[in-house]
Amino acid sequence: GDPGSKARPRPSANRNPNLSPNPNPTLNPNPNPDPDAKPELWAFQPKRLGLTNQLLSLSDVIAWACELKASVAVEGLHASLFADLPTLVPVARFIDLPGLNARLRGDPLCGATQLLALDPHPHPNPRPEPQPQILTLTLTQPHPNPERQTPNPHLTPLLYNMMKLAVLAATATATAAAAALDVDDVRGEFYAWMGSYGKAYGHAAELEARFAAYESNRLLVAALNAEDNGATFELNHFADLTEAEFRRSVLMPPREHPRLERTRRPLPLGAPEAFDWRDAGAVTEVKDQAQFGTCWAFSTIGNVEGLWFNAGNDLVSLSVEQLVECSAEVDLSAKHADCSIFGGWPYLAMEDVIAAGGLRSDADMPYCIAEPLGTDANCLPCMPDGYSKELCGDHSDLYCFKNSTLGQGRDGLCKSDEGFTAKVSDWRAIDEDEGVIAKELVATGPLSVCLNAAKLSFYKSGIYDPKSCNPKDLDHGVLMVGYGAEDSQDYWILKNSWGKRWGEDGYFRLARGDGTCGINTAVTTAVV
Questions:
Q1: 174 within 8 A of 125, measured Cβ to Cβ
Q2: CA atoms of 141 and 152, how far apart (whole Å)
Q3: In this structure, what CATH number is given to the domain that contains residue 400?
Q4: Most buried in the list 95, 252, 350, 465, measured by CB within 10 Å?
């Protein structure tokens, strides 16, 4: 979950003599190229060169091509290998294959960092016969005016790794077995998944570690789907994390719900059979917390957004970043605290908003600790001033530009009492009776809730009703927006903060009526 990234040094040119007819090519072998000359061809077998294990082999070609100020075209990759990729595989200035037509924007190869979306065409045979494992690299003549095409000595990590992905995908089989896949098939599946989610890793050892996690999660997803408990599961953007990494980087430390004074107030005698605050326009779009334990802030903000709208105001996205950077509230009796990216509690966040005087809009103080969502490159995670080192742990060494972040700079917004978009006057804890919660939801607005989400990572669709889920181990905060029933199974509708590609467009449904995963134990709402 390191938000920073280091530039990858460019590999030395021509480290593998098998890739060149000349072991020591000059930087410009032909200063006056013939425009009608045919490009030279090199055909090689990836497996013979060890490309399935030695992932730096293609980088030699890339570095060499940059030195020659040449562009590289790759042929022999079957288009079906890339049919499901939402981002193109940037192996060259252009890729033009049957069933695939994509272009890079920017300089050819060296320094091309901005990608166009993939434009796939349906392939007539989705399960073609395996193609020969031969990859042809075509190096065109150098640019006629080298001074106008200065090579970029740095390849971006995404470009670099996606180029490696293209060669590795070319060595994979073009058919996928319906049953269990062998290691090579799983690798091909993994590389396609990498492209789909824009994943890039710094070195071969990291890639192997991520592949091992992917293999393990692949088996887990198959087992979860075999249980047939009303929900389906898939390998999503968490597929390269181990269970421990997911818990550590995305969830909060499991804790029991606080013993809050819960309120009952006059509510309607009945509630409709189904209800959804999205239909009333009281819910903002799904956000992505990335690999930070900031779900508590998203849950709190979603609650205030809905109530502020229901009070007659415009629906506006409010600032999660304000809570992450500014809230250092502590409940010593319960030994709970707001700990920035390491977890927190919605009821404490509401206390902080009340003390601060209000909430800013997301436009004024954006959630910028998670690339690529942020707009401020200097906004890296900062612990709030005065945070509890006893309850949160000592994070004094956290990499952070306090003098440049919006919240904690010299004139930081955490110190200002002006510019608020929404106000909060109080907060309430809701009774644990799920019938009461449903009535409160309808009468009040979207509610902040916590639950045990340890096995929720690969949820895709359906009603989540796990066989075992300790209701006391609350490790995730979400927003309750509605409820309903399907095939006699009651459920809650919950808005997550793991992006729109997760679950049911960023939402999930949870079994209702039995306190599943502790969903009824820490329900709170602001008062505006």
A1: no
A2: 18
A3: 3.90.70.10
A4: 350
